[in-house]
Amino acid sequence: MTTMTRSRLIPMRPRDPHEPGRVASSLELFFDLVFVVAVSVAASQLHHALSEKHIVSGIGWYAMVFFTIWWAWMNFTWFATSFATDDWLYRVLTILQMSGVLVLAAGIEPVFVDHDFTVSVIGYVVMRIAMVAQWLRASRSAGSARRATQIYAGGIAAIQVVWVLLLLVPAGIFKYGVVVFAIAELALPVVAERRGTTPWHPHHITERYGLFTLILLGESLLASANAIIEAVHDHESLGPLISLSVLTLVVTAAMWWIYFWPPHHTTITSLARSLRYGYLHYFVFAAAGAFSAGIEVEIDSITHHTELSEVAASYTVTVPIAIFVLGIWWIAIRDNADRTVNIVVPLGAVLVLLDPLIPIPFALTAVFMALIVATLVVHPPVQRSAGVPELG
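Predicted structure:
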């Protein structure tokens, strides 16, 4: 039985990394909903930037904004796998983090349009300060992980002060400061976990990553529906738009199949492997979000509402797909696959990258993705021992 204090709080002790039946809670699923909003806004702004031929700046702003979205989500996810209690204070602080995500989402458009980071930084700081409170609370009952929780709390707080001060510098300098302090954010877990490793539940954490992937792929399905909606209003482009919608569904389904083919929990059996898994997912997640923006650019290309050439528009679709496939192959597939799969998957990604140079690029992209899936069906994952997290 869990002990509860007079204030109806449960001591925030480290969770058992071997806890049977550990799955995502309803609070975690609720938490994810606000990220649907943030990802949708970021993808929409990337779509507009690419269609207006602001390719380099658009990708740069998207990379920065998506980092804040991904990092806030990932930090809460790893904290929750270690210390979730689901009492009233934990819920309140989680909902406070959600409010910060909504503020961040509201500030994404000013970042792309006016290069104004004020609202986004405020939202980000709200999220991170709530996370500081969570870590401080966890430190009271963290046992051997106490030092790690204190480093997390102190490090996050210090970095947020600098984020706020960074608003005082010109926009041209701010973007370089973002890179520096993004590196600081990434370094903090490495430092903290070497002072007292927090426990993680392999099945729970990889389920959470899978759920976030589904959110991102959902944006692509929305883009597929938008192609049909556009076709209803543009009869001259009816055939190409319907074809794009169908092909988008095929490719999105293939991306889902590829992502969930390997047993992800076997890839985070040590601190180093868990950091690799967590950090490299930035590219997988960002690519999945950018894929939906690329579909919208393709719609613009078909309906003649973009300044991009057909080849350039095709690249806005194929580059994210290739990054997604190569990313998940590197993170989880290659360690669980035979030689055939380890040849076909990266080769398929490279062929997808070459598609824009062919007259019917996106159709062949769908074919290549389907061939990858067919290979995965014929060659199931190699059976390996799941192992257990190496703590300390």
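Summary: The radius of gyration is 22 Å.
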